Amino acid sequence: MKKILPVAILVLAVGASWALYKSRPDVVTEVAEPPALLVDIAVAQREPVTFTVESQGSVAPRTQTTMVAEASGVIVEVSPNFVSGGFFRKGDVLVRIDPRNYSAIVKRASAAVAQAETQLATESAMAGYAKEDYERLRALNPGTGPASPLTLRKPQLAAAIAQLQSAKADFEKAKGDLERTVLRAPYDGLVRQKIADVGQYVNTGTQLAVTFAIDKVEVRLPVTQSDLRYLDTDRLRSGQSLDVLLRAELGGQELTWPAKVTRSEGVFDAASRVLYLVAEIADPYGLISGQVGTTPLLVGTFVSAEIAGRPGGSLFVVPRHSVYRGETVWLVDEDMRIRPSVVTVERADDKYFYISDGLSEGDEYCATAVDQPLPGMRIRVGV
User: Fold this and answer.
1) How many CA atoms lie less than 13 Å away from 9 in the CB half-sphere?
2) Residue 145 in this model has a pLDDT that exceeds 70
3) What residue spans define the domains of the chain?
4) Has residue 151 got a pLDDT over 70?
5) Where does residue 207 fall: left (phi above 0), alpha (psi -120 to 50 degrees), or beta otherwise?
6) Of 102, 99, 95, nearest in space to 77 by CA
7) 0.85 cut: is pTM over it?
8) I need a surface site. Which of 57, 165, 185, 211 has the fewest CB within 10 A?
9) Is the model's pLDDT at 251 over the cut of 60?
10) pLDDT digits (tens, 9 = 90+) for 292-304
11) How far is residue 361's CA from residue 74's CA, in Å, rounded to a whole number?
12) Topology (CATH level 3) of domain 66-97+182-213
């Protein structure tokens, strides 16, 4: 009896389990559709496009001069504007060198001219007397031969004339040396670096300052070989210019200045393989025109540039993130599903793709970048 009871219990448990298994309800299996992606939709529209080429560079003076002393001596006076950052006008006196030695040389040269003039007058008179004496001699003795140049004192007269010319040349040089003790500004400009000051002894050729003109400044703008096809470089070769807009951030504010690309440097840089275009900005400090309240474009400012290029025609301008792998736009159909369309890209920049084919006017496309999109994927529009 003790051996039969466990077996009976086991049989009853198996039977109950089998009954429960057979009485279980049928399970319905459903395939869950993946959730629709939340995206933004944009409408494709053609618009006229004029290409621009972006570049950057630093503002540099077009005319820069290292001023040197043209006379030797002690600097006795400098202009109040002869300081780093000081502005000056053309013809302003910037530096005066002690002129006393040069004034003495001018006086000696002037005296030498007077002496040479006196000597010339004396020789001229004596030559006249010599000619009269020779004429009287021939009248008394018709057989007298022709007079020699020495008899007529022609060599002495020529020497006196040469001495006067030499004295005048020395006088002109002495006056020029005296004038060069005063250093005058050759143009409207700014002192970039002051090197010499009052009390310093300088020799001819000693550097005094580095200055630059403020009528125009330049910016060298590198352009790659691929970007050159978007610019009308024929205008530069014919002497015309290209419009360019310069931008820089100063004091937390973005400022702009119009400029003109007037020339290229004509050769590609061997290291970077770029061609440098040169943009000019007239009156960058606003001093020549007298403009008040304008922000000056300081030399040394780092600027970004947008160079006006060729017309691109009527194109679709699509944000860069909306083009999958640089060649595919995902169109949205009536069932809110997406399908791919391979497009023809005329140009791409940091922000947009410029598309000529592969889209139609009014097509709706997925403006949001989708990770691993699939044809037929369902989407929904974000609110």
Assistant:
1) 5
2) no
3) 38-49+314-381, 53-62+214-311, 66-97+182-213, 99-180
4) no
5) beta
6) 95
7) no
8) 165
9) yes
10) 557 889 999 999 9
11) 79
12) OB fold (Dihydrolipoamide Acetyltransferase, E2P) (2.40.50)
